[in-house]
Design brief:
Layout lengths: L1 E9 L3 H10 L7 H9 L2 E9 L2 E8 L5 H9 L2 H11 L2 E2 L11 E2 L9
Antiparallel strand pairs: 1-3, 1-4, 1-5, 2-3
Organism: Niastella koreensis (strain DSM 17620 / KACC 11465 / NBRC 106392 / GR20-10)
GO molecular function, one term: racemase and epimerase activity, acting on carbohydrates and derivatives
Protein name: L-rhamnose mutarotase
C-alpha cells in the first residue's frame, strides 16, 4: 500500500466552498466517480479543508500510478464532466504548473518512521 498527500486551493468564496462541500458529501457524489477512483487502485481517499486550502490523503494499491489514473480519466466522459464541475470551485496553487490541479506534498516530519 502506498500513501500520497496532495493539496489544492478553492476559490475564496463562501458560497462556492459550501457548494464544493455539498458535492463531496456521500449522498451527493456521483457513483461513477467513486467507481473510477476505486478502479484506478485507490483503496481510500480523504479530503480535508481549512479555509480555502484542501488536503487530500490517498492510500493506493501497489500497482497504482498517476499516469494510469490520468489515462483512465481522460477516456471517461463522466469523470471529465465531474472535473469540469469541480474546476468551478478550484484554483491552482500559486506554484502549480499550467493545467495542474492537485499538487503532491512532501513529507517533512514523521513521529514514528
Amino acid at each position: 500500500m502506498k500513501r500520497y498527500t496532495l493539496a489544492l486551493d478553492l476559490k475564496e468564496d463562501p458560497a462556492l466552498i459550501s457548494e464544493y462541500e455539498y458535492w463531496h458529501r456521500a449522498e451527493n457524489g456521483w457513483p461513477e466517480i467513486k467507481k473510477s477512483i476505486e478502479e484506478a487502485g485507490i483503496a481510500n481517499m480523504e479530503i480535508y479543508r481549512t479555509g480555502n486550502r484542501l488536503f487530500m490523503i490517498m492510500e493506493t494499491e501497489d500497482h497504482f500510478t498517476f499516469e494510469q489514473k490520468s489515462k483512465m480519466d481522460a477516456s471517461n466522459t463522466r469523470v471529465q464532466e465531474w472535473e469540469q464541475l469541480m474546476w468551478k470551485f478550484q484554483q491552482p496553487l500559486p506554484w502549480a504548473q499550467e493545467g495542474e490541479k492537485w499538487i503532491m506534498m512532501n513529507k517533512i516530519f514523521e513521529l514514528h518512521p
